[in-house]
Amino acid sequence: GAGVSQSPRYKVAKRGQDVALRCDPISGHVSLFWYQQALGQGPEFLTYFQNEAQLDKSGLPSDRFFAERPEGSVSTLKIQRTQQEDSAVYLCASSYGRLFTDTQYFGPGTRLTVL
Amino acid sequence: AQSVTQPDIHITVSEGASLELRCNYSYGATPYLFWYVQSPGQGLQLLLKYFSGDTLVQGIKGFEAEFKRSQSSFNLRKPSVHWSDAAEYFCAVGARAGGFKTIFGAGTRLFVKA
Questions:
Q1: What is the pLDDT of residues A36-80, one digit of tens each?
Q2: C-alpha–C-alpha distance, residues B12 and B79, integer Å
Q3: Shortest CA gap B110–chain A (Å)
Q4: Do A96 and A29 touch, CB atoms closer than 8 A?
Q5: Do A41 and B107 touch (CB under 8 A)?
């Protein structure tokens, strides 16, 4: 079946622009995670949704970052007034259940470059 | 606070040789432990995970890992490496006590030579 998809795969933004990154999780998956992966680093947790509820947003680096999942399926990560330090690959993952121990399935990521 | 250390930035092994990738974690109790692999152009894929019980965990693609509480380690092993194993490997730790945050190490890049 279809895995986690993300769009766009690549995004170039000028500093100060707003961007929106989309994640389509595996159908029926309750849990959805966003991560930020800087070049040469491991992924860093940003936020977690259980259905439409955002239960953990402790990893969002600033109030310029906002995520939503209004209908409990597709999720959007929005970054306002992008800065060069926002350049990274943004990964989305979904898992079937509510347990933290459920396997997370990752999408291919969106590579954001801020000029 | 939780943390994960992967001491080796990159490792080169010959095809057919054995492999061990090191991972050390810092956490106040027994954490959830994971190994992921990331190939170029591919998403992260879970290789194996440890939650409790037998400290030797078998995963996909012939990988295994051993949890050693006394050493705070969770090293990944494979007896015979294939060229297709060349990739970036990430060790990760998750908290048991609430929250949904998984902490990843910086990764170890594996090169396989013929």
A1: 999 999 999 999 999 999 999 989 999 999 999 999 999 999 999
A2: 15
A3: 14
A4: yes
A5: yes
